[in-house]
Amino acid sequence: MRFSLFAFATTVLLLAAPASMKPTAANTCAERVSTDPSVKLIRTEDAAIPGSPISQAAVSGDHIYVSGFLPLAPHTGDIVGTDIDSQTRAVLESCKTVIEAAGSHLGKVVKVNLKNITDYGRVNEIYADFFGTHRPARSAVAVADIPLGGGVLIELDMTARV
Ligand SMILES: *[C@@H]1O[C@H](CO)[C@@H](O)[C@H](O)[C@H]1NC(C)=O
């Protein structure tokens, strides 16, 4: 009985391993440790993990500085959708997830930076739904290019209070 339980557990582990260890650009970056205790680097598997040498967010004093998020799915790193609607929702959700992983929430967002204003009206509708009555400061700029190139339509970052 003990042996078969062990065999079962091993089988489950083996079946689970390939998916979770899938080597994608999004999840191969190592855990980052700040060189100074006054800066805390945030990492959560529930938002896309950048392949580049950056953290999802850094906390300094009372503020959480979230990196510019591209519309990439957590775990797989795949580009989310092909339209501005789904990609806008994806970047907003990623920033929210990271802010919550840092122990805060959307009501404490103070500033948002939005890159790509081609579909400004549509992005604003989704954005307004997302924040509800909370209206953080924001800047929005037109951009010539966004990392990862074709298929990625938006980058967005936030700063929030802890
Ligand atoms: C900006 O978004 C529009 C769709 O809203 C897209 O057609 C365009 O390619 C995007 N620009 C960049 C630089 O990705």
What can you tell me about this protein's structure?
Helices cover 30% and strands 19% of the residues. The chain is α+β, with helices and mostly antiparallel strands. It has one domain (24-161): RutC-like (60s Ribosomal Protein L30, Chain: A, 2-Layer Sandwich). A six-stranded mixed β-sheet has the order 1-2-3-6-4-5, with helices on one face. Strand 4, helix 3 (120-131) and strand 5 form a beta-alpha-beta unit. The longest helix is centred in the N-terminal third of the chain and has 19 residues, at 2-20. It is globular. It binds 2-acetamido-2-deoxy-beta-D-glucopyranose. Residues 1-21 form the signal peptide. It holds the Pfam family Ribonuc_L-PSP. Belongs to the RutC family.
> Whole-number average pLDDT?
85
- Cofactors, ions, other ligands: 2-acetamido-2-deoxy-beta-D-glucopyranose
Regions with pLDDT < 50 over 5+ consecutive residues?
1-30
Provide the CATH topology: 60s Ribosomal Protein L30, Chain: A
Cα-atom radius of gyration? 18 Å
Family: Belongs to the RutC family.
Signal peptide: 1-21
Pfam family, one: Ribonuc_L-PSP
GO molecular function, one term: deaminase activity
